[in-house]
Write a structure and sequence with these properties.
This protein is of the alpha+beta class. A hairpin with a 2-residue loop joins strand 1 and strand 2. Helix 3 packs across helix 16 and helix 10 runs parallel beside helix 14. The structure holds FE2/S2 (inorganic) cluster and fe (ii) ion (FE2). Fe (ii) ion (FE2) binds next to helix 8.
Length: 439
């Protein structure tokens, strides 16, 4: 029955609409994990999360519990979080330092940081004459098939075949370039720890929302209006309001018509870039001091290039949403057909003055954290979408806004001028989804 359903999967995705089962069917979810999340490059974490040998961080890839660990050789390894003896999870904590080696809490088998067996207590007497010899690979913790990193951001793929990480990222690697280039030292470091939010909705609903330029001025209008009122009062009294008010008031001041003035660029694999919309270069003393550190590091011309990069959001399908100018990212970990974990991280620009970090922190707290009204309003929509799609009130999800009007050249679908709210990103994601699901 599953086979029959699978062979008709592509019928569930049309260029401009998608059948609701794609969001609600548990068998389709399992197949997505097998064919998408457990195959493609998935973001594990940042190298600075595991600075010392033995430092580890657990991470979910598809349905697989994994470990990212720094070895004595300074390399970052990604292993299945499972003991080869009787299957006990190796690390029950979310993160920590395992010391010189991993030691299973059940029967004390030990492993090097790269997963290779170190020792089994009384191995010679216990296993003499059996197939379990030291050189048997079944004695090792299993590694992810491929691990690679780009500018400190670590990815793993659980299959041996497929494109290289840089090929997979393609143009979307601008997310990491933009983030790191903004640091005078050319790299970022993680701020421990992250917010972890469980959404009662399918993982694709979150991703579709990330570049949905149509919703902010509706969904977040009330938040934006409240912030705008206070911002205007402060401006009246003092002449200028802190940038943090602008982060929220932009939701009210940028109307749907204005959103149409921005652009999305949609790439193969489902990746997508949304151009910038917020003014992030005020002429306050903090910003000017930061710009000086960039001039010292890169020179005037390069500094201008870096700060003029005009990106609001980069979506790296199927698991990452990056806001590089504000050093934030959200990693998507599907837990079930209607349950999704998002990890919300932010980063420090190495070598940048402290106020620039405070700006990133402000955005993190005001716009992306579970405490903000912005996030709460999105979460409520996600849950309501999942409820609606689970009903018999209709079978199709509609993605027709500006359909047929986008401009396609060299494999890139660009929204046409004045049509930034095109649903091209959703169409593009589902096109990639259908391609992955076919294989
Ligand atoms: S289950 Fe790990 S040592 Fe036995
Ligand atoms: Fe939103």
């Amino acid at each position: 029955m599953l086979y029959e359903r699978v062979s008709s999967l592509t019928q569930l995705v049309e260029p401009d609409r998608v059948h609701r089962h794609v969001y609600t069917d548990a068998q389709i979810f399992d197949l997505e994990m097998e064919r998408i999340h457990e195959r493609v490059w998935i973001y594990c974490g940042h190298e600075s999360q595991v600075q010392q040998p033995g430092d580890y961080y657990t991470v979910q890839i598809g349905r697989q519990p994994m470990l990212m660990v720094r070895g004595n050789d300074r390399k970052v390894h990604v292993l299945y979080n499972r003991c080869p003896h009787r299957g006990n999870m190796m690390c029950g904590d979310r993160y920590g330092n395992t010391g010189e080696f991993f030691r299973c809490s059940y029967h004390a088998w030990t492993f090097h940081h790269d997963g290779k067996l170190k020792n089994i207590p009384m191995m010679e007497s216990g296993y003499e004459g059996t197939k379990l010899t030291r050189d048997n690979p079944d004695c090792n913790m299993k590694n992810a098939a491929r691990v690679d990193s780009y500018r400190g951001f670590v990815f793993a793929s659980l299959v041996h075949d497929g494109p290289l990480l840089t090929e997979f990222l393609g143009h979307s690697k601008i997310a990491f370039d933009d983030m790191c280039d903004r640091a005078p030292m050319g790299e970022v470091e993680i701020v421990p720890n992250c917010f972890r939010v469980i959404q009662n909705s399918n993982w694709k609903i979150f991703l579709e929302n990330q570049l949905d330029a149509l919703h902010p001025s509706v969904t977040h209008q009330s938040t934006g209006r409240a912030a705008l009122e206070v911002e205007n009062e402060i401006k009246k009294e003092t002449g200028h309001a802190p940038l943090s008010y602008h982060m929220l008031s932009a939701f009210a001041s940028v109307t749907i018509e204005k959103w149409d003035g921005f652009q999305t660029l949609n790439y193969p694999n489902g990746h997508c870039i949304l151009t910038g919309y917020m003014g992030l270069r005020p002429q306050d003393p903090d910003t000017l001091a930061y710009e000086k550190t960039l001039v010292a590091a890169y020179g005037e011309k390069r500094k201008e290039e870096i700060l003029s990069t005009n990106i609001h959001h980069v979506l790296i399908y199927p698991g990452l949403s990056v806001q590089s100018p504000l050093q934030q990212l959200r990693a998507v970990r599907p837990l079930g057909v209607d349950k999704t974990l998002t990890e919300i991280w932010h980063f420090r620009l190495k070598g940048a003055p402290e106020p620039i970090y405070r700006r990133s922190l402000a955005y993190y707290n005001l716009v992306n954290s579970p405490a903000t009204l912005v996030n709460a309003d999105d979460l409520e929509n996600f849950w309501k979408i999942q409820q609606g799609l689970s009903s018999d009130g209709g079978d199709w999800v509609n993605f027709q806004r500006h359909y047929g009007r986008d401009v396609e050249k060299d494999n890139v679908v660009e929204t046409r001028s004045g049509m930034g709210t095109s649903e091209a990103p959703m169409r593009n994601q589902m096109k990639a989804w259908a391609e992955y699901m076919k294989t």
